[in-house]
TrEMBL record:
Enzyme class, spelled out: transferase
Protein name: tRNA (guanine-N(7)-)-methyltransferase
Similarity section: Belongs to the class I-like SAM-binding methyltransferase superfamily. TrmB family.
Positions annotated to bind S-adenosyl-L-methionine: E43, E68, D99, D121
Keyword tRNA processing in record: yes
Gene that this polypeptide is encoded by: trmB
Length: 219
């Protein structure tokens, strides 16, 4: 899918109070940004931000960082926050424009408690497998920023990507703690489910949603 370029996106991100600027300064000490020691959950590829916004509003004792590498997409998330009433904007939500390949530049070991991956780009061609956010290469990066009890939650409607993800997790010695091929009909995993824009779209046309929860291997 080709993204429409928004000329003012870079400028908007650089000046937005919702975005994290110079994130490297907080590596290992994110309490300086959030002014508390609450756990930090991140969503990689946050899109327009509805999923993480709902979580932040619901769970005020958790800090959330939405990560998006495409400026034109992050711009839409900023707009969404700007159009909210001030007392509705959660103070525990921040946005960060960066590529997930560089996560270890801004997060230290144990900085993160949970990673969300929602409807990530499947990169269907075999030669692009390394770019998938559940590839062995990215799992190694996550391993370097999650704390010892950290978890990874992944949702997709792409069956091939889901099978690939399970294989990569096993090969990387992660534990798959929960797994379903039909989230919306799973009596346990659907209880606390927060839907994303893509999830709502795909499920409305009959696509079953797959979900897994994985935890780090023992050191």
């Amino acid at each position: 899918m080709r993204l429409r370029n928004i000329p003012i996106a870079d400028e908007k991100i650089a000046s937005s109070p919702f975005c994290i600027h110079d994130p490297e300064q907080y590596k290992g000490s994110w309490d300086r940004l959030f002014h508390n020691n609450n756990p930090i959950h991140i969503e990689i590829g946050m899109g327009k931000g509805r999923f993480l916004l709902q979580l932040a509003q619901k769970n005020t004792d958790i800090n959330y960082i939405g990560i998006e590498k495409y400026t034109s997409v992050l711009f839409r998330a900023i707009q969404k926050l700007e159009h909210m009433e001030d007392d509705k904007i959660p103070s525990n939500l921040k946005l960060l424009c960066m590529d997930a390949e560089n996560l270890t530049n801004v997060f230290a070991q144990d900085d993160i408690s949970k990673i969300y991956l929602n409807f990530s780009d499947p990169w269907p061609k075999k030669r692009h497998a390394r770019r998938r956010l559940t590839s062995e290469q990215f799992l190694c990066i996550y391993d370097q920023i999650l704390n010892k009890n950290g978890t990874l939650e992944f949702k997709t409607d792409n069956h091939s990507l889901f099978e690939f993800s399970l294989e990569e997790l096993t090969a990387s010695h992660w534990n798959v703690d929960a797994c379903t091929y039909d989230l919306h009909h799973d009596p346990i995993l659907c209880q606390s489910n927060v839907m994303t824009e893509y999830e709502e779209k795909f499920s409305s046309i009959g696509n079953p949603i797959h979900k897994l929860i994985a935890s780090k291997h023992a050191k």
